[in-house]
Amino acid sequence: MLTHLDAQGRASMVDVTDKAVTDREAVAESLVRMLPQTLEMIQRGGHPKGDVMAVARIAGIQAAKRTSDLIPLCHPLMLTSVKVELSVEAPDAVRIQARCKLAGQTGVEMEALTAASIAALTLYDMCKAVDKGMVIEHTRLLSKSGGKSGDFQAEVTSA
């Protein structure tokens, strides 16, 4: 059942007024594949735009905080923690993992997914001049906890 529909079948923001405040957390990831020489340039700090991974991390954090401005019908949330980590997957990929937390009446899955996606897009944007063939893939929710719908843990896959 789609929960973003009102009694007349129109799209609407879900009313969370009567939902209990619980601790909620979500983790999402995205993978950016690139040429090995592009990744090597990023790792050695040789990119002319500076620390590409630091900029992508900041972009992901900022995006999580602005999710309700980007995704229609998302509630504006007071996040208590946003962490975006980038790790090298040898020899041609960067894995981005975003973790969002709050104590609230609705979940943070969209915030985690937005953070991972925007960090990946930022990495692409900063490196596109040297590697237009980069691919963003496997953006997905890894886990969520808290709330009425309960916990979720994605199956482990090899990306």
From TrEMBL:
GO terms for molecular function: cyclic pyranopterin monophosphate synthase activity. Residues 13-147 form the Molybdopterin cofactor biosynthesis C (MoaC) domain. The active site is at D125. GO terms for biological process: Mo-molybdopterin cofactor biosynthetic process. Gene3D superfamilies: Molybdopterin cofactor biosynthesis C (MoaC) domain (3.30.70.640). Pathway: Cofactor biosynthesis; molybdopterin biosynthesis. Substrate binds at L73, C74, H75, M110, E111. Transmembrane segments: none annotated. Pfam families: MoaC. It catalyses: (8S)-3',8-cyclo-7,8-dihydroguanosine 5'-triphosphate = cyclic pyranopterin phosphate + diphosphate. Its EC number is 4.6.1.17. Keywords: Lyase, Molybdenum cofactor biosynthesis. Belongs to the MoaC family. Catalyzes the conversion of (8S)-3',8-cyclo-7,8-dihydroguanosine 5'-triphosphate to cyclic pyranopterin monophosphate (cPMP). Homohexamer; trimer of dimers. This is Cyclic pyranopterin monophosphate synthase.
